[in-house]
Design brief:
Layout: H1 20-45, H2 60-67, E1 75-77, H3 83-88, H4 93-100, H5 134-148, E2 154-159, H6 166-177, E3 182-188, E4 191-192, E5 195-196, H7 197-200, E6 217-221, H8 225-242, E7 246-251, H9 269-276, H10 280-290, H11 298-319, H12 363-373
Parallel strand pairs: 1-2, 2-3, 3-7, 6-7
Antiparallel strand pairs: 4-5
The chain binds thiamine diphosphate and magnesium ion.
């Protein structure tokens, strides 16, 4: 018997609304993510942000719907497209923006950048740059919860492209075998970089991809915050109470390119327009207005508040200092003779040819160390 529950998402109008203050919070959080991402893109164009930048504009309902289904003590882990995941967990926008700017007040003290958001205190266990690399780590969190005997669940988000990685099958197998309380949420935004779903995955109905490993699947409308929240809440309940992993496919779309460097030659403007007509902020606003949850002009106030938070975040990030050059080797925890090469040598502490007390590690690192100590350019 198939494990997967076949489900036709009801229209947004047929979902019950949460309490008014909760509904407003969901809209405000989606607005914050949208405005944050737009401004991050602008700051990238102005060269305030280095490295890569992947925006999640269009995917806000998926992020907020699943993020708000979590308890505070649950773990969330995501990919390189994760500014919104930090924001939905409550990480202040100013610290997320400072991370993009590479400043000391960033969530990873400016050392990670866009792809490496992290907020352990809020159990946002990070952004990961390796496609599919976060799945086994999520299973590890769930295994830890299980061994500690807590009721915490883990939610792991990744893309449609990541579902082709070897880590996907390996993790599904172990998670099912060990009865781990983890929900895998595949954000199917229709593309892995410039490759359409049907051109990269033999099975395009992603919710069934865990079946052969014993992982039941579910599907939700990732453009509808109400549907995503309802389905992920049920998946988390199954994971927590029945001690089993669940795979949820959220059908969504990114309105912008894969990253800031994407010429977008693989899709038509018409297709983007069709999906933009289902903009999750507009449809949810319309629903809240139709039900009288928002009074006239309130949606504009919520949006203006989001813009103000983002304005302040940019000002904060710009005023935050860059990390001090002499802190370059802080947090590099493989030292001495463990790995050979420039980064294996602690140049900040040693007086001699290598790290204090450590055996010599070879000519190249020693030369680099000497050069750095002499104040020369490496
Ligand atoms: C192991 C690995 N292979 C390739 C890449 C390059 N890469 C970065 S994002 C990406 C596409 C992933 O697409 P998907 O999983 O659908 O996520 P999306 O970007 O659509 O959110 C690829 C191939 C990588 N980061 N890691
Ligand atoms: Mg994708």
């Amino acid at each position: 018997m198939p494990l997967t529950t076949r489900y036709a998402a009801p229209a947004m109008a047929d979902h019950p609304l949460p309490a008014a203050d909760v509904a407003r919070d969901w809209l405000a959080t989606m607005a914050l993510i949208r405005r944050f991402e737009e401004r991050a893109g602008e700051m990238y164009a102005k060269a305030k942000v280095g490295g890569f930048l992947h925006l999640a504009i269009g995917e806000e309902a998926t992020i907020v719907g699943c993020g708000r289904a979590l308890r505070d003590s649950d773990y969330l882990i995501s990919t390189y497209r994760s500014h919104g995941h930090a924001l939905v967990r409550g990480t202040p926008a100013q610290n997320v923006m400072a991370e993009l700017f590479g400043r000391v007040d960033g969530v990873s003290r400016g050392r990670g950048g866009s792809m490496h958001m992290f907020d352990g205190a809020r159990r946002f266990m990070g952004g990961y740059g390796i496609v599919g690399g976060n799945l086994p780590i999520a299973a590890g969190f769930a295994l830890a919860s299980d061994m500690l005997g807590t009721q915490d669940a883990t939610l792991c988000t990744f893309g449609d492209g990541a579902s082709n990685q070897g880590t996907f099958g390996e993790t599904m197998n172990l998670a099912a075998l060990w009865h781990l309380p983890v929900v895998f949420l595949v954000s199917n935004n229709q593309f892995g970089m410039g490759t359409a779903l049907a051109r990269h995955s033999a099975v395009t109905d992603l919710q069934v991809k865990g079946e052969g490993f014993g992982v039941p699947g579910m599907e939700c409308d990732g453009m509808d915050v109400l549907d995503t929240h309802a389905v992920v809440t049920e998946a988390l309940r199954m994971a927590r109470e029945q001690r089993r992993p669940v795979l949820v496919e959220a059908i969504t779309y990114r309105f912008r390119g894969h990253s800031m460097a994407d010429p977008e030659e693989y899709r038509t403007k018409d297709q983007v327009q069709e999906w933009r007509a289902r903009d999750p902020l507009l449809t949810f606003t319309a629903r809240l207005e139709a039900d009288g949850v928002l009074r006239d002009g309130e949606a504009a106030e919520i949006d203006a508040a989001a813009v103000a938070v983002v304005d302040a975040a940019v000002a904060f990030a710009d005023a935050s200092p860059h990390p001090a050059p002499e802190s370059l080797y802080d947090d590099v925890y493989v030292l001495g003779d463990q790995v050979q090469g420039l980064y294996s040598v602690d140049t900040t502490k040693s007086a001699g040819p290598g790290p204090a007390g450590a055996p010599e590690t070879g000519a190249v690192p020693q030369q680099m160390t000497a050069a750095l100590e002499a104040g020369e350019e490496a």
